[in-house]
Design a protein that fits this description.
The complex is a heterodimer of chains A (about 325) and B (about 270). Chain A is of the alpha/beta class. Helices cover about 35% and strands about 25% of the residues of chain A. Chain B has a two-stranded antiparallel ribbon with strand order 1-2. Chain B is globular and about 60 Å long. The chains are: A alpha/beta (about 325), B mainly alpha (about 270).
Chain lengths: ~325, ~270
């Protein structure tokens, strides 16, 4: 059983009368990558600021593992903690160059002096910022500053890395680069706690997900286990050719009639009004079924045998993107109810 | 040895912060140095060659004393610029999000304070060095020990000034507001209270920074005049105008300012989020 590295015990944080974090209890284990998801104003950044000691909670205890392997209350004593790296909020920098800033950060965190220059060069090359090493940070683009913020979080090779929306403002290639780097850090045994709005991307790298809303945790588990909390789910069925527009309604009606025993028995009209939807742009059918494995195989069999004249199926799958978004949306919706 | 090593490990973040902040401000320091050089060469050299009406002062001490008013002005501006951002800039510019999780707030403030102190004292040192060279050029006299004493008081004055501005930085919202407030306070409020205080009482205005600065030029003279004040008569009443403090009074007041305001800055800064 992996040891706990960060522990929240009934932590509450208020901004005046507004409760940003409400009696939150959470444990992060060593070597895990935990995704932290929630709507705007849910309390994600506040939680990360509490770990980084930028804020002090009104109630509760926050413990972080120290160099001796014991959990230590950081509110009472923040010395001798294990090395941690932070990317909190949108990064802001001094009026200097990446080299001097990274060197300063590495020095104050006691990174070995003889290795600093090499470490800086390697990380800057990794993120295509090497040629900007001696240029002033104020001329950097938003994406470049975000990448530099990520480098600052890991420059001193910390054991625990706290990331707040690390992919904000990055182009698709840079986002892939960040995710690759998170995966490589994971393989090195680092513990990573990442808050993000990019659900499908966070699902790629995370072992577990924490869902937070209005300062409270509403879900904390693997994506598969969270998915099991949702009774019903979707299938995306891609077809080879477009269905002629004049035939669409008739085919959809026939599909509903034939697949009724296997379709979603209750569905939330706010989320979806159609049990089977046709998306001509994607050339796909989205089928809301009852979530049973047997039903899935029956649906596939019926589509291939009885509708082969109408369309040819090229793929038949449950998309991860829509699953996590659905979990997220449904849990927020359940809380509102 | 172990104890020294322990102290060194604890002081390392402060030392690195000092080094980092010196590199951040080196260009501004150069700009201020050029201003110091320019005003010294213009008012202390060119005016005597290109404007024959300006007569060189009889004594080297008077020559040095004349340049002190400009020094005070430069120190006020430099100290306001460098020290106003010691604490508030970390919150206003949000650079605190980057560094405060990695270094304790007290060590960051201490490192920035010492770095900026080195820069402002460096400016004063540039001023004194050029003054020394000009004095030697015009008067051919050797270095006087009292110049070093004057520089010592100047350093103490800078430390007191920087502590007050750092204290302001602990609760005011931005560097600009501190520079404006302190400028207005020093050039108007301090002088107004100084003169009004003396009209009403005969007490020595040791609280006043303008008054305390006068020790820096007066210490250059071989001996202080018998009276440190003059009496002004207006109609039926008369009051005292204090010209300069004595050494002990200036020393104690500047040390108190330096320590008290610096210490007060820390708990106030902790309240900021």
């Amino acid at each position: 059983m992996a040891e706990t590295v960060i522990k929240f015990d009934n932590v509450t944080m208020k901004y005046g009368n507004i409760v940003a974090v409400n009696n939150l209890s959470l444990e992060l284990k060593k070597g895990e990558v935990i995704g932290f998801i929630g709507p705007n104003g849910a309390g994600k950044t506040t939680v990360l600021k509490l770990i980084s000691q930028l804020l002090r909670p009104n109630f509760g205890k926050i413990s972080v593992i120290n160099k001796y392997g014991k959990l230590q209350n950081i509110i009472k004593d923040s010395k001798n903690l294990i090395e941690m790296g932070f990317l909190i909020d949108i990064p802001h920098f001094y009026n200097t160059t990446p080299y001097y800033l990274l060197k300063y950060i590495a020095n104050i965190r006691n990174y070995p002096k003889e290795k600093i220059n090499q470490r800086i060069d390697n990380l800057l090359k990794e993120f295509n910022l090497f040629e900007w090493k001696y240029k002033k940070i104020k001329i950097f683009s938003k994406g470049m500053k975000q990448e530099l913020g990520f480098i600052i979080a890991i420059i001193h090779d910390p054991d625990i890395i706290i990331l707040d929306e690390p992919q904000t403002g990055l182009d698709p290639n840079a986002r892939i680069q960040i995710r690759r780097f998170i995966k490589s850090l994971h393989q090195e045994g680092k513990t990573i706690f990442v808050a993000s709005h990019m659900l499908h991307e966070i699902a790629e790298v995370c072992d577990k997900i924490v869902l937070i809303n209005q300062g409270m945790i509403i879900g904390f588990d693997t994506i598969d286990n969270l998915e099991n909390l949702i009774k019903n789910t979707e299938i995306v069925c891609k077809i080879l050719h477009l269905i002629p527009p004049e035939k669409v309604n008739a085919i959809l009606q026939r599909l509903i009639q034939r697949l009724t025993p296997y379709l979603e028995s209750e569905f939330d009209l706010e989320i979806s009004t159609d049990l089977i939807k046709y998306n001509p742009q994607e050339k796909s059918l989205i089928i809301r079924y009852d979530g049973k494995e047997e039903s899935r195989s029956q649906i596939l069999s019926i589509l291939m045998n009885e509708f082969n004249a109408e369309f040819i199926i090229t793929s038949f799958s449950k998309p991860k993107t829509s699953q996590l978004e659905k979990i997220y949306t449904q849990m927020i919706h359940d809380i509102k109810k | 040895m172990k104890f020294i090593h322990k102290i060194y490990i604890k002081a390392k973040p402060v030392l690195h912060t000092i080094s980092f902040n010196l590199t951040l401000h080196v260009k501004i320091f150069m700009v201020f140095s050029v201003v110091v050089l320019f005003q010294l060469f213009f008012f202390g050299y060119f005016v005597y060659y290109f404007f024959p009406n300006n007569v060189l002062p009889r004594s080297i001490m008077t020559f040095y004393g004349q340049s002190m008013a400009m020094l005070n002005l430069i120190l006020i501006f430099a100290a306001s610029y460098f020290f106003s951002g010691v604490i508030c800039s970390e919150f206003k510019n949000k650079t605190g999000f980057t560094v405060l999780p990695l270094i304790s707030r007290n060590k960051l403030i201490l490192g920035k304070y010492i770095a900026n102190l080195i820069l402002v004292i460096g400016l004063a040192a540039v001023h004194y060095l050029i003054m020394l060279l000009l004095g030697y050029n015009f008067y051919g006299e050797p270095i006087i020990f009292r110049l070093i004493t004057s520089f010592g008081f100047c350093v103490l004055y800078i430390i007191a000034l920087s502590s007050i501005i750092t204290f302001l930085s602990s609760f005011m919202p931005s560097s600009a507001s501190i520079i404006i407030f302190f400028g207005l306070f020093f050039f108007f409020l301090d002088s107004i209270i100084y003169f009004r205080f003396m009209e009403v009482t005969s007490l020595e205005p040791l609280y006043s920074l303008s008054y305390l600065f006068n020790i820096i030029s007066m210490i250059l003279y071989p001996s202080f005049p018998k009276f440190r004040y003059s009496v002004v008569s207006t109609g039926n009443s008369s009051y005292i105008i204090w010209d300069y403090p004595n050494v002990e009074g200036a020393l104690i007041t500047l040390i108190i300012y330096a320590i008290v305001f610096f210490i007060l800055a820390f708990p106030l800064s902790k309240r900021r989020k």
